[in-house]
Amino acid sequence: MYEDDMDMIFDLPGGDNFDEITDLFDAAATEMEPSEVIFAEGFTLHDSMSAFEIGEPRMDSGMVVETDNKPSFDPLTPLLPRELCWMLDRSFACEMAWHGGNTLSQTVYTLLYVHHLPHIDPEMIRYAPHLHSTRFATEIITVVLRSAVVGLLKCCDLAWRELSKGKVQDTEDWQGEKCDISILEGTPSELAVRMLEDACSWLQISPLSPDDKAALIDRILLRKSLLELLRLRLPTDLQKTKPLILMTRNILRRIRSRPEIIAPPPTSLASDAFDPHITRRLHSFIPIRIVELPTQEQTWDTIEALLQGWETLEHLLASHSLFAWNICGVNLATYHRTSPPFIRSLTQSALQDRNLIFGVYPAIWIVEHYFAETLGVSYEALSHTMRVHWTGTGTFSMKETERHIFTIIINLIKSHSYNPPRRRRYLMKSVLEWQVLHDGLRSLTAQLNIDDAHTQTIVDAVVLTARLWQASVAQEIILSGFQQELYTADERPVAYWYAAQVIKISLGALDVMRKVAPQDTHACTELRFQTDYLTGLQAMCIASCVLSYKPDSRPAERMATNFRKRYKWLFTQAFPSNEEELLLPVPDFKQFVPSVTQLLSFSVADCFASAKENLLKAANMDVRAFIAPEQAAERLEYVHRLSNLCEQLGGSKGENLRWDPSAHPWFPVAIIDPCDGDTQN
């Protein structure tokens, strides 16, 4: 075969004008010892091996297959109004996909107009003699589309600034890599808002049809309202939040009430405005992966979730209640409704900024509300009581305890804004902090000389506040394991058994604290609710333990090892020498089988019936008696649903149970035999 024939068969990329250098490398390697490697500066053996890893996406970052080979993108290609509407809708989808944890290069940067902003600047194209489009066709791009892209990038910039504060985890909750692409960091927000307003003004006098005008104006107004929400500084701009949320919801409702804009055909030039392979041309450290953007309905739902997060934060900032913040966080965690990372970061920033609570109160506010909302007794009165009865050495001081309460409460409330696994890990670490606080309060009150029984009860209740909060944290840790599907079938009865023990500790503390809390106070209402609710929850845990227990399922030694690993957060506590002073009992797996054997004599149906009775008593309390009615209403609704589950499980058998966090976060649901009735999913 001749050389020319070879050229006809093998069409090499870049031509075939190559030099043979094999001999050159052989000569260079003659002086090297076996296994010797020469490294380029900053390039290690690990890097070289990673480059040859099978399936490494970055090896193909510059490869363009024939099907992806498209003509050069022309940002000034005229667009139809419906095409522009579709592009604006998909730009929101790109933004919400980024808020969902994808990278900018996979979402927002796929909109090619992001990279062509200078080319659609009206000041630049004014001097383009080659442009033959009509003025109207040009301005719909340079005025309307350009303002929307600027607003999109500015929204990403403002969100990026909040997310980058470190309150949520980069690469875990969100992706902060910018790929050296500007998201208009130096452009004032006011300029972006003014451009969007100018676009609305232009659309109103444009020759478009009324339907096209309304569709485009609503999308520009939606972008403008989101931008104005993102630029708010909470809690300083709290009074502006609610009107903006209402306005944004109205705009979104109008958009969703109209038929969804159908995507243009692949042959349309508008479909070329999005390039999912844009990462191959960007400076990115993340392997290329094409992300499927959310549907338009999912996009609007995500925007609604953002608005719901802003609204919840607005209610919390207006309530100025410690329990409101804690209950709201626990509610969200219990229902497994994790807010978008931006809202979770913004919530933490609004809670505490520069050592001020809600931007107004000093740190002592946390301490005052810790006692007032837990016991119904003011911190000033408690301090006075302890000062009067102080007999210890030195001057009476609560400064150390105040600092500890402030730190542990702030961190606890912030932890509700973590993602579920990180929140659970933090709660495990905080168990020891509550032990330290309890020991500090006990040491302080031990130096008081009290001869009055009522005063002694108050002092005992002060110490028990730490025990109640820690038991609540331990209960969250154990039950959240069901939500995150951490337990095997053999571990479920153990978790229910130990949860029942922890709840018993809470009930003991509540008995003492209810004697102290004045009647007709929010604290008294909360303590009564907790007593009824936890009594019912404990009965449910006992019954669920019996239902899920299967004797001799695994070797006892293996189960004991798993138990110690699962509850290592308790074994690693710095325990006092006297075990009676422990807040939480040291879990002893040897006691599990005897305890469950005793529980097997209980009637499961009676346990669930008792649980339902107590849960209904808690669920039927007047919501107006709670310190945070809006958060309490949601909690009471959940307790009511829990009572309904008791009725379902009361007649079930252990064989027809299914643990599914989407059905219930903590307890199983009974699968009804189709022969007996409708199947419950």
Describe this structure in words.
- This protein has helices spanning 3-9, 22-29, 45-51, 81-99, 122-125, 135-163, 189-204, 210-230, 238-257, 296-319, 322-334, 341-351, 364-375, 379-388, 399-415, 420-445, 453-483, 492-513, 522-548, 556-566, 568-571, 592-599, 604-619, 629-650, and strands at residues 352-353, 356-357, 657-658, 669-670.
- With 681 residues, it is mostly helical.
- It has three domains: 3-68, no CATH class; 81-308, no CATH class; 320-670, no CATH class.
- The strands form two sheets. A two-stranded antiparallel sheet has the order 1-2.
- A hairpin with a 2-residue loop joins strand 1 (352-353) and strand 2.
- It starts with a helix and ends in an 11-residue tail after the last strand.
Question: Any key phrases for this structure?
Answer:
cytoplasm; mainly alpha; single chain; two-stranded antiparallel sheet; TPR_NAA35; Mak10-domain-containing protein; NAA35-like_N; Naa35_N; 681 residues
